[in-house]
Specification:
Length: about 80
Amino acid sequence: HGVVLDFSRPGKPTDNAFAEAFNGRVRAECLNPYWFLSLDDARVKCEAWRRNYNEHRPHSSLGNQTPMARAFSSGQACLP
C-alpha cells in the first residue's frame, strides 16, 4: 500500500511540533489536574476531556470552530 514509517529522532521532539504541542496540551489539561483512582477512572476522565476537546471547545486554528464542526463542514466527517 506504499506506507512508509517515519520516526522522530530520539531526543528531537521538534521533528513533529504539532504532536508535541498536542502532547503538552493533554498533559497540562488532562493528566496533571486529576488524580486517577483506577485505570477505569483514568479512561472515563480522559474520554471526557477528549470529547470536550473535539466536540465542544472551539480552536482558533480552525476559525473558532470545533474539530467536529470543521470536519462536518468540510465533508471529511465519517459517521458509523
